[in-house]
Amino acid sequence: MTRTVISGLTATLLLLFSLTAFAAEAPDFILEDTEGDLLTLSDLDIDGLLLLNFWATWCKPCKSEMPHLQALYDKYSEDGLQLIMVAEDSPKTQSKVRPYINSKGFTFQVLLDPDQEVLSLFQGSTLPYQVLIDSDGSIIETHQGYTHGDEVVLEAKIRELLKLESGDE
Q1: CA distances (Å), 96 to each of 35, 91, 113, 128, in order?
Q2: pLDDT at residue 168 is higher than 70
Q3: 137: phi > 0 → left, psi -120 to 50 → alpha, else beta; which?
Q4: Do 23 and 140 touch, CB atoms closer than 8 A?
Q5: How far, in Å, CA of 142 to CA of 99, rounded?
Q6: How much of the chain exceeds pLDDT 90, in percent?
Q7: How far is CA 12 from CA 9, 16, 30, in A?
Q8: Cβ neighbours around 32 below 10 Å, total
Q9: What domains can be seen in the chain, in order of their start residue?
C-alpha cells in the first residue's frame, strides 16, 4: 500500500513537472472593461510580462490580495509588468466592480467576465487565479488562491522573468 501511495505521488510530481516544464500559448479572448471598451488579448503589446488576475467582489482572498498586486504593478510597470484584473462577478453583482475599484484607488485595468468564459479558457477554478504571460504570449505560470505571503513569491517570480537584479528597483 505504501508503494502505491509513493508511486502515485511520484506520478503526480512528474505530471506537475511536465506541465510547468513548457509554456503553452495563452488563449485569445475579447472582454469589455469597466468603461465599456473592448480589449482583445492578441491586440496587447506585451513588452515584458502580463499578469492576468481573476477575482470577484465577493471573494475575500481576492480583496486581500489586490493591494499587493497594485503595489507590484506600481513598482514594476516601468520595467515591463502589465496587470489586468478580470472580474468574475455575475451580471447580478457586476455593478459593484467599478465602484469597488474606484473606492480603493486601484489604477490597473479591469475587465468583466460575467459568464466565467475566459476563466474557463485559462483552466481556472478557484479565485483568485493568476496567469503570468510572457512577451511571446506564452503562459509561464498559474497560481490559484491567495495566502498572505504569496505576493513575496510572486514578486520574486516577476523579478526573475523581467530579468531584474536584486539591487534593481
Answers
A1: 13, 10, 13, 17
A2: no
A3: left
A4: yes
A5: 28
A6: 83
A7: 5, 6, 34
A8: 13
A9: 22-161 (3.40.30.10)
Distance CA(35)–CA(33), nearest Å, equals: 5
pLDDT digits (tens, 9 = 90+) for 7-64: 444 433 333 433 343 469 999 999 999 999 999 999 999 999 999 999 999 999 999 9
- In three-state secondary structure terms, 54 is strand
54-71 pLDDT tens trace? 999 999 999 999 999 999
Residue appearing with cell numbers 470577484: 56
Q: Cα dist. 118→54, 81, 95, 112, 144 in Å?
A: 9, 21, 19, 10, 15
